[in-house]
Amino acid sequence: MKSSTWWKSHNSDKADAQRKAMDERVVNSGREPRASLAEIGAVDANMPVSVRDLTKVYGTVTAVDHISFTLAPATTVALLGGNGAGKTTTIAMLLGLVVPTSGEVRVFGADMSTRRGEVAHRLNFQSPYVDLPSRLTVRQNLAVYARLYGVANVAERIAYVARDLQIEPLLDRETGKLSAGQKTRVGLAKAFLNAPELLLLDEPTASLDPDTADWIRRKLRDYARDRGATLLLASHNMAEVERLADRVILLDQGRIIEDETPRALIETFGRKTLEEVFLDVVRGRSRQLPERPESEIAPARKAS
Fold first, then answer.
1. Which pLDDT value is given to residue 286?
2. Residue 150 backbone zone (phi > 0: left; psi -120 to 50: alpha; other: beta)
3. Is this structure's pTM higher than 0.90?
4. How many other C-beta atoms can be found within 10 angstroms of the C-beta atom of residue 158?
5. Rounded CA gap, 28 and 72, in Å?
6. Please, what are the domains in the chain?
7. Of 38, 164, 178, 231, which sits most exposed with the smallest number of CB within 10 A?
């Protein structure tokens, strides 16, 4: 079977039927325009993510401050910001792992604070900072997660994903004894087990050598295209974001300050790269305003 269709061998009959229905309703990819609260309030069960006025407060610290956005089907969106901007907290609330202080998160129409179990099989998460149990072998870890996601034919599915991600030689090794690059591939295998329609990624290529990082990016791009999946990517690698993302949501102090395509952001800030834009934001520099023609500039007043 060709790698471009490997995701089709997955999960239970119920999940398969749900995914098939979802696939038939997927719209053409493209950047979702910034949604108004009224638009977000009209919940569409086919919308991968709908966030409305989302807030999370820890004591005196507001980690996420009244943010609203939607993610359209078959798009790749980058969630950017400096350390402490609220990216990880936002992803945790999207996964239903952290309860919002106020506002709501809906994934495929389900409120993640109360109905997470209804859609959990349709999404997954990958991060090199979240370790799988180190004493279990790779095969054992994948088997545990496959059963948690309700994947049918677990052994067959593991073999298929392992072959596609080139981790077959690692299957019977202890997970804790793998290199960083090997752990990243295993983590991606875990994330692909249930062929998610929504994949959340937190620094997916952190600490990897350029060759391995490029391989991971190509796998993610191919998966999003072939599966018609929606990806939300948190990354500090701006070149990676420019390559993968259709759209960038930029956070600062828990608030959304920009929501544009990478190219539009670069042009708006008058920079050459997204990295330069990112540095402007985290260092508190304003976006570049267009220069006014001299004819529109009023002569300076003399002091009275």
1. 57
2. left
3. no
4. 23
5. 9
6. 3-28+47-288 (3.40.50.300)
7. 38
